[in-house]
Design goal:
With 486 residues, the protein is an alpha/beta fold. Helices cover 40% and strands 11% of the residues. The chain folds into two domains: 187 residues, Alpha-Beta Complex (Aspartate Aminotransferase, domain 1), CATH 3.90.1150.10; 252 residues, Type I PLP-dependent aspartate aminotransferase-like (Major domain) (Aspartate Aminotransferase, domain 2), CATH 3.40.640. Strands 1-7-6-5-4 form a five-stranded mixed beta sheet, with helices on both faces. Helix 4 packs parallel to helix 5. The radius of gyration is 22 Å and the shape is globular. Bound molecules: ligand F0G. The site of ligand F0G has 17 residues, from helix 4, helix 5 and helix 10.
Length: 486
């Protein structure tokens, strides 16, 4: 058991995660009737991205820009030094990056994908290969837009839904070396490691693994780029799960990881519970290579497209990442939900990861072929019967190959994000209850088909329709079981 300063045991109750914050600003929620939820689905093309929040009860689409901010962050926003150039707010951001991530050169960007654009623009030439533990949607899109190709090099264990492996986000070191030998180091501008690998269920890598990746990078003279968007939670799970790190602070673990990386980029929408992003490094040469791209794509070098108020919130949020009572909150709620569902037989990704609870639509909707998007159908069905909005993380989120063929995802997941300090335990119990009901009624769910398919990042604005009247059948069963309950 890790030396966890947030571990509070109960005398009589089962051990439940205890909130170590209090709620001082609230927002009223609405749960609209199921008939309205069906209309909303048709209006939004059965795509949860296109729902309007007035129709959403619990918004579990993402943690991006939706984590609860602290009183200190909100207070700092009032201190913003509005200036096009040379803002004091930027220097506070730079100091926080140096203190928390250990890098002295900072390039601000308006969010994570803007950082990916700049890095791809600077380093990738046509035909290059980017080995990585696993892709994220926007990172892959930027790499392929710049003529590169990705290679995903996880161990087989990573694809096992129900597993006990503590570090499913680890890079397969043998495959990495084989890939470099096959393609030639000159065609590999960088290796990308993603903290808490998002698309396979928020699964972390270990420090041992990152050290092994570093050794290979050094052996072949290749840069190591760290996507640090979910770095805080990865550090928390290292503390929980990796031998030798139980007694280390989150600050020490983060610095151990960032020291091993040449370039770090992040979505501040995740990392620091605010809105923005950035790239940082200790190499002046790399900094100089990237510097001209910030004013070109983002804005002047002391704001990079981020509002100055948000820059203040990022600076404070970075320091708060080091607070274990803060960084453990979302993983503990996720652990609670995942373990409860697992005990009741609902197939979920285990061990519990970060960002959210990931439900396996392949097993639940084994009667729906991947051609008809089981994860998309399950996400729509879950919204319909609960008002809870999750996100499809399956084949709809994949992109077609260069010949226009469908590429089916390795996993078909419904992701229910649990942003930091936003939901209460009774809301989590509601989610669990409705998921159990839907699991018991899963045979009523059928597939979806595209009626509007954008060519890039189709999952954002794509439109689909159900292949039959299955949503109406689901409503009829809901009414039978729940009567006039919302
Ligand atoms: N890298 C990772 C690992 C991410 O999870 C995200 C965003 C990005 C990069 C891009 O950052 O959104 O600021 O441009 N993930 C969000 C999500 C969108 O819902 O998981 P961004």
């Amino acid at each position: 058991m890790a030396n966890d300063s947030t571990n509070i045991k109960f005398y009589k109750e089962e051990n439940i995660p205890l909130e170590l914050h209090k709620v001082r600003v609230v927002q009223k929620l609405h749960l609209v009737p199921i008939e309205r939820r069906l209309e909303a689905l048709f209006e939004g093309g059965f795509n949860t991205f296109r729902l309007n929040t007035k129709d959403v009860f619990l918004d579990m689409l993402t943690d991006s820009g939706t984590n609860a901010m602290s009183d200190c962050q909100l207070g700092a926003m009032m201190m913003a030094d509005d200036a096009y150039a040379g803002s004091q707010s930027f220097f506070r951001f730079q100091k926080a990056v140096e203190d928390v991530l250990g890098k002295k050169y900072l390039l601000p960007a308006h969010q994570g994908r803007a950082a990916e654009n700049i890095i791809s623009h600077a380093f990738i030439k046509k035909g290059d290969i980017i080995p990585m533990n696993y892709h994220f949607t926007t990172s892959m899109a930027h790499i392929t837009q710049h003529g590169g190709k990705i290679e995903e090099l996880l161990y087989d264990e990573a694809y096992v839904i129900n597993s006990k492996h503590p570090f499913k986000g680890n890079m397969n070191i043998e495959k990495l070396e084989d890939s470099i030998k096959k393609h030639g180091a000159e065609n590999i501008p960088f290796i990308r490691m993603e903290a808490s690998t998002n698309l396979i269920g928020g699964q972390p890598f270990s420090i041992k693994n990152l050290r092994d990746v570093r050794k290979i990078a050094d052996k072949y003279g290749i840069l190591l780029v760290l996507d640090a968007s979910l770095l805080g939670e990865n550090a928390y799970l290292v503390k929980q799960r990796e031998e030798g790190f139980n007694d280390k602070t989150i600050a020490e673990i983060i610095l151990t990881m960032t020291d091993l990386s040449d370039i770090i980029y992040f979505s501040a929408r995740k990392l620091s519970s605010s809105r923005g992003g950035g790239i940082c490094t200790n190499s002046e040469k790399i900094y100089k290579k990237l510097e001209p791209l910030v004013p070109l794509f983002e804005g002047f070098l002391t704001y990079g497209g981020i509002s100055i108020r948000e820059i203040e919130a990022i600076a404070v949020g970075l320091y708060e990442t080091l607070d274990e009572t803060m960084i453990s909150q979302s993983p503990k709620f996720i652990e609670y939900l995942v373990n409860s569902l697992d005990k009741k037989g609902v197939p979920v990704v285990t061990p519990p990861g970060v960002l959210g609870c990931h439900i396996d639509a392949i097993q639940i909707c084994s009667h729906i072929s991947q051609k008809e998007y089981p994860a998309g159908a399950f996400a729509a069905a879950f919204y319909l019967i609960s008002g809870v909005r999750g996100m499809e993380r399956g084949s709809i989120s994949n992109q077609r190959d260069e010949y226009g063929n469908e590429t089916y995802a390795d996993m078909e997941l419904l992701r229910l994000a649990i942003p930091r300090r936003v939901f209460t335990l009774s809301q989590i119990k509601y989610v669990e209850d409705r998921l159990c009901w839907l699991y018991d009624n899963r045979q009523l769910i059928e597939g979806l088909r595209f009626v509007y398919e954008p060519s890039v990042l189709r999952f954002f604005m794509g439109g689909l329709e159900p292949v039959s009247d299955w949503p109406q059948k689901l409503i009829a069963k809901f009414k039978k079981d729940f009567g006039d309950s919302l």
